[in-house]
Amino acid sequence: MKHYTFILLLFFMITHFFGKTQELSEGYWKGELKLQENNILSFIFTVDKNQRITIQNAEERILLKESIKENDSLQYYFSSFPNYLIFKINSKKRISGFFVNPDRKINQARLAFNAKYYGDNEPTYLGKNDTLLDAKWEVYFNSNSEDKFPSIGKFKQEKSKLTGTFLTESGDFRFLSGSFKKNKLILFSFDGAHVFLFTATLKNDTLKGEFFSGSHYQTNWIGYKNEAFELENPDSLTYMVKDTFAFNFKTTNDDEYTYPNEALKNKVVIIQILGTWCPNCLDETVFYKELYKEYNHLGLEIIAIAYETPESFDGKVKRINRYIENKEIEYPILVGGNASKKECSEDFHMLNDITSFPTSIFINKEGKVIKIHTGFNGPGTGKIYTDYKKKTKNLIERLLKE
């Protein structure tokens, strides 16, 4: 009898212990993703009482809503992308596993992930620094090559805490956060699609460093303070080379959709070329939801075409429907081809080239293309974003009155 009681007690203790380890400790955690060799991307996230994870990228907050228990692991899914975190709870203060991107090649699809618990105290950046990075920086990625591409670095520094972004001619790198200590810069972003790490050293007012995107891409970059530096106008990169703008794609219900059509006659129309895998496209979609709500009843229509990574039509539809549902999008999204700028350019052969996802075509009531905007600089760019929103609303209001 004593032996039987001991076995029951031991069984209770084991099951009680393992039951507890399946719950994440509430509060702040510091996560790490292993990129190439010894390069580590660090980020901060919180766990609430409902076991929801929220990742912090500067001012941005990314809630991982879906979680699944599978054997001894937990899977947390990003609402906007098909990617997920899968990990085991090793103890109250440690977890380990992988960040998985199912659209990547097999050897690039998984990044080692681990995290340490910090409790109620957010990991902070302490100390002072005599050199301030608050300025406009003329930046070149792949700087040692003829294929170098320009960018603008915009940073905000508080002691040694650093936030900011890089603007390019095809959009921005979204919300970046990190530190600047002893002339060493670290910036990172982890939003479910981007896995970005920037490192650099400041010497004689010049930043020199490296940029890592996951485990599959690495290049160098260089930056100089230059308040006068500007990029090419994003309204000038793509333009009409034929007289007629027209297309034909499938709806998510497998019906034919042709533009132009009678339903859009005497309407102001925005054609949005996007990918549900594209964070800049997501930022633009959030803004277009706002435009649609404000101006649709006055005659604005938005038609989106999504170029997706799954090869099958059904796979593309699944991604698009998930995007529509999660982001509560009211305007239609058609099914484009594969996630390829080349393929997209062939579909829109009346344009010189599609150089970026997203690209937007603005059309007046007479069916005339009046502007084509390449890329999108989102809320991580601050005033640039708010100025563009104001400028676009002014354009829509003018076109609606014509």
TrEMBL record:
Domain of life: Bacteria
Descriptive protein name: TlpA family protein disulfide reductase
Pfam families, alphabetized: Redoxin
Organism placement in taxonomy: Bacteria, Pseudomonadati, Bacteroidota, Flavobacteriia, Flavobacteriales
GO MF terms, alphabetically ordered: oxidoreductase activity
Gene3D superfamilies: Glutaredoxin (3.40.30.10)
PANTHER family named among the record's database cross-references: PROTEIN DIPZ, THIOL:DISULFIDE INTERCHANGE PROTEIN DSBE
Ranges where the Thioredoxin domain occurs: 220-401
Organism name: Brumimicrobium glaciale
